[in-house]
Amino acid sequence: MDRDVLLGREDEAWSALVGAFDGVPEDRREVEGVVPGWSVKDLVWHCGYWADYVGDVLERMSAGQPEPPDQDWEALNRMVAEDGKGKSWDDVIVAAERGRDRARAALLAMTEVTDSAGSEFTDETVDHYEEHAAEIVTFAAAGQR
Questions:
Q1: Domain count of the chain?
Q2: Which of 144, 139, 141 is nearest to 34 (CA)?
């Protein structure tokens, strides 16, 4: 897969996510309801976590190590969301940016970007950012009515 195309798509999706959460007033970023039980802050934390996770997966692929074993992804998502609730907005943003940077760096460091690596990267960054940016935009619009 073309690394530059993947990085460009990720950058566009990240910019859309940032634009979406920037459109939510500060006093609504911790209000649940973007998706059931989750706030804007929770979703940004979630996106950052999964970007960091895919960075780890790509690093493992580069090192010839196996991917982490399958697990109860819903339970992990609940645990991640709960962990993020105790963080400040600024800490969530820093962690999300750090996760994003790790994913991008891991992709850049790969000698060859296989279809599997490209798919992992796209699923946990581009697709994830786009999905949640759309939900955040809808939430923000509902609050302005």
A1: 1
A2: 139
Q: Which residues is 38 bridged to in the sheet?
A: 35
Helices (H), 2-127: 3-22, 40-62, 73-85, 89-109, 115-122
Judged by phi (left if over 0) then psi (alpha if -120 to 50, else beta), residue 90 lies in alpha
The reply to whether the predicted model has a pTM over 0.90 is yes
Residues 90-110: pLDDT tens digits? 999 999 999 999 999 999 999
> From the centroid of its chain, how far is CA 55?
11
User: CATH number, domain at 89?
Assistant: 1.20.120.450
Specify the 3-state DSSP secondary structure of 30. Answer: coil
Give the Cα separation of 88 and 127 in Å (integer): 25
Domain extent at residue 44: 3-24+33-143
Q: Residue 35 forms beta bridges with which residues?
A: 38
Angle at 100 between CA 99 and CA 106, to 5 degrees: 90
